[in-house]
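Morning run. Coffee first, then this:
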Amino acid sequence: MARRSLAATTVRDALDSAVIAIAAAGCDTPRLDAEVLLAHVLGADRAALFADPSRGLTPEQARAFMDAARRRREREPVAYITGWKGFRMLDLAVDRRVLIPRPETEHLVEAALGLPAGTRVVDVGTGSGAIALALKSERPDLEVFATDVSGAALEVARANAARLGLDVRFAHGDLLAGVEADAVVSNPPYVGEAEPVMPEVARYEPRAAVFAPGDALSVVRRLVAAAAARFIALEVGEGQAGAVDSLLREAGFAETERIRDLAGIERVVVGRR
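And here it is:
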């Protein structure tokens, strides 16, 4: 999109140009990324792009889309560029203070939906608040707490809770942070410090939310040892479910379950006493 032709740029032209550039940068879903970014700039949904591909962009819209596409070419995640990420039935504000919620983590929420009414659930390492807020939204009868060692992340989570009108209580501190729990849910850091990750993760997402200090299961082991709850559900990395299952059994969770994500990976390990 040359600057001298900004006024003549159409939706089709803008998308075609951005898709080529984003694909060349090595992004996996260039068409989807470009469509989401352009829809965000236009304040519309993606269906509007298909309905009127010959629609002209204003110079301001064209410049904003050029900037968004540039950021994506530099491998900045789409969610950080738009400032939003959908998670189950919620739209969450996200920025570089928090990990971007992933679809796989929705299985963690589903694992806890069957808890008895009134259960005190603690979401450990809440980040944007995704797990805790989704649980409170879908099971308002639960007593939901959320903790995070990052005060900056808690600012994002509290703002999401306030905007959504969901009564989740937050505590700043390590792991359970002194909060008593009947049930624990967590998407803890489970990537080893030396493990390779995508550029989007390495360059932009908060390191402490991704990498466990030392080996990949260091945080998981500490959390399992600290949890005196009757129920625990943990998101884990590919190939880790067996080891985490054993940790739970050794800690007294006699009944365990492994839940596969849509890719068939054992993604969530549940323990019950």
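The first strand starts at residue 84 and ends at 87. Good start to the day.
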